[in-house]
């Protein structure tokens, strides 16, 4: 019998034996042993052959790493969303947070480290994923300038490398793309329903690269297809003919794909659903827009904060509160609004504990991000409406 068939049969029997064990006390297989056999099973079904690169700079140096879908190292390749043991996910703490220790290589400059930290902090703002500085933890993410932009898939244990090369990977969206793989996220255009949303031009893809475009068996978590996902390939990915697209959105071929500015709203929603995060967060990325507290009216639990992150490509942000009704309390302690000059709670607070209706300030950010946080004890539903735009404001900034 062919060796691959034998291995597949053995791995499948083992898979079902550990999924539905008989009721006897036996010595449990180690995490790494089970993962190894599951890797064999999945990789034989998927048909691993060779692993070309997604980004041209993944060929820099002497990169001999075989990469699945261009930037996922196959050492522990699994489909995290259907992982039968949940070992593909990082564990959740009793406080509802997913704590992931991380370490940044000392090879990066101060500016490069700041960019990486900024990309990481966006998870803390919008999801229950919290990256914390590693101390003595055994399992952690190690961000290092290896030979390209790539990541392991899901949690693999030990010092888990996320490669962010200095030559072409130093963009927030690329960093978050690779971190998403480490969280257990796949590429958007490999969804099992992708043929309803994009057209793959196989004639412009070399046969050796076909498997990069093979749909996966992953659960889409009930979320719609996201052209704006940071996990989506650009339209010329793996093209063997200059100027010829391999991926075209359908039915509107003009829809942009392949952005690397940062996480999209649906990227955030997918992470929060995958890790069952109890968090209310909204990402606002249009140059102008409005938002209000009423979007959480039906699901606002006690002692739960809501955040709105305004992140535009460039320029400053002008924010104006149009209406405000918040239950009055001593020193605005129970219910109030905070506005941060940046995308993180660690940034400067330039509106602190706004709660009284007569206070309707206009504020202007110093950069291209602003964070609005609504704090409530849940006894009453705070109400507000706000609008924002990009560029200079017609009023004096940051004065109440």
TrEMBL record:
Gene Ontology MF terms in the entry: metalloendopeptidase activity; zinc ion binding
GO biological process: one example: proteolysis
Pfam families registered for this protein in UniProt: Astacin, CUB
Protein keywords: Disulfide bond, Hydrolase, Metal-binding, Metalloprotease, Protease, Signal, Zinc
Positions bound to Zn(2+): 177, 181, 187
Annotated Peptidase M12A domain residues: 79-278
Co-factor(s): Zn(2+)
Signal keyword on record: yes
Active site annotation, chain numbering: 178
SUPFAM superfamilies: Metalloproteases ('zincins'), catalytic domain, Spermadhesin, CUB domain
Coiled coil: none
Domain (CUB) ranges: 277-391
Enzyme class, UniProt record, top EC level: hydrolase
InterPro entries reported in the protein's UniProt record: CUB_dom, MetalloPept_cat_dom_sf, Peptidase_M12A, Peptidase_Metallo, Sperma_CUB_dom_sf
EC number: 3.4.24.-
Cofactor note as given: Binds 1 zinc ion per subunit.
Full protein name: Metalloendopeptidase
């Amino acid at each position: 019998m062919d060796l691959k068939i034998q291995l597949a049969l053995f791995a499948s029997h083992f898979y079902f034996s550990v999924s539905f064990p008989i009721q006897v006390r036996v010595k449990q297989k180690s995490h790494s042993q089970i993962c190894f056999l599951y890797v064999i099973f999945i990789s034989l079904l998927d048909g691993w052959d060779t692993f070309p690169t997604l980004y041209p700079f993944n060929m820099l140096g002497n990169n001999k790493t075989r990469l699945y879908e261009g930037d996922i190292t196959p050492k522990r390749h699994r489909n995290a969303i259907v992982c039968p043991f949940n070992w593909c996910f990082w564990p959740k703490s009793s406080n509802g947070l997913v704590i992931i220790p991380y370490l940044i290589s000392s090879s990066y400059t101060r500016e490069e480290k700041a960019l990486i930290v900024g990309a990481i902090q966006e998870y803390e703002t919008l999801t229950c994923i919290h990256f914390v500085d590693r101390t003595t933890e055994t399992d952690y993410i190690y961000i290092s300038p290896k030979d390209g932009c790539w990541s392991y898939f899901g949690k693999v244990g030990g010092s888990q490398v996320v490669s962010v090369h200095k030559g072409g990977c130093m963009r927030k969206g690329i960093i978050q793309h690779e971190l998403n793989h480490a969280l257990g996220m796949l590429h958007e255009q490999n969804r099992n329903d992708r043929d309803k949303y994009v057209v793959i031009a196989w004639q412009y893809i070399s046969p050796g690269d076909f498997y990069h475009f093979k749909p996966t068996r992953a659960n889409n978590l009930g979320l719609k297809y996201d052209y704006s996902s940071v996990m989506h390939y650009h339209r010329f990915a793996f093209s063997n003919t200059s100027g010829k697209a391999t991926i075209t959105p359908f039915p509107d071929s003009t829809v942009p794909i392949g952005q690397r500015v940062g996480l999209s709203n649906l990227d955030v929603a997918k992470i929060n659903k995958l890790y069952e995060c109890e968090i209310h967060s909204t990402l606002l990325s249009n140059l102008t827009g409005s938002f209000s507290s009423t979007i959480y009216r039906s699901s606002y639990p006690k002692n739960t904060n809501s955040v709105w992150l305004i992140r535009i490509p460039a320029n400053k942000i002008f924010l104006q509160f149009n209406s405000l009704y918040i239950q009055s309390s001593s020193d605005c302690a129970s219910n109030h609004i905070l506005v941060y000059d940046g995308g993180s709670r660690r940034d400067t607070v330039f509106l602190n504990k706004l709660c009284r209706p007569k206070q309707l300030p206009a504020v202007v950010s110093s950069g291209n991000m602003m964070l609005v946080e609504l704090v409530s004890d849940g006894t009453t539903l705070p109400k507000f409406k706000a609008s924002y735009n990009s560029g200079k404001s017609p009023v004096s900034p940051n004065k109440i």
